[in-house]
Amino acid sequence: MTDHEVALLFTVPGIKDIYELNLEHRALRLTPLQSSVGTLLVTGSTAVAWEDVRRVVGAQTADGHRAGSSTMTSGNRELVGYHGSDALITLRHVREFRRAIFINRSNSPMGVRLFSGDNVALPPATNGTQIVLLVHRIGNVLELRAEPVPHDWPDLQIWQEFDFSMTHRAPTSNRLH
User: Fold this and answer.
1) Model confidence over 52-78: pLDDT tens digits?
2) Which of 11, 36, 64, 105 could form a disulfide with 46 if both were Cys (CB 3.0 to 4.6 A apart)?
3) CB of 114 closer than 8 Å to CB of 47
4) Is the dihedral of CA 42, 133, 15, 88 positive or negative?
């Protein structure tokens, strides 16, 4: 989808228009400026999985376990990953980003904060349902969606539900034969 086609999308609120992404208010869309400046910070997530525009897929938990492959930006930073307990998307390189899901296994809400200070919350699991945050790029904007999944699903099943299949790079050797 090209940038001018973004105007053809159905209307959804912006991050300043809603307080919480939940089953009633399922989506919001950032502006092109909000989608490209600073870092999108997700607090309260316990795991993230991502895909870049080359279809490289990886995942990481807040406690450091990894699967798949990292996507490094030209600034030698991970496009998506954890810094301490916070998950980050480096927006300066958003054109390399395709999508990510953020999972919350805690009893506390997840939060999304932009460089501008704008933020939105996602509730913790209730009644056997947890909300997964899906962030995907459409042209030059990011859309954030609250997606319900059963609370008892393991991360692997959630990845499969959203069609995340981990990318594994072939090992390389420094030895010459």
Assistant:
1) 999 999 999 999 999 999 999 888 889
2) 105
3) no
4) positive
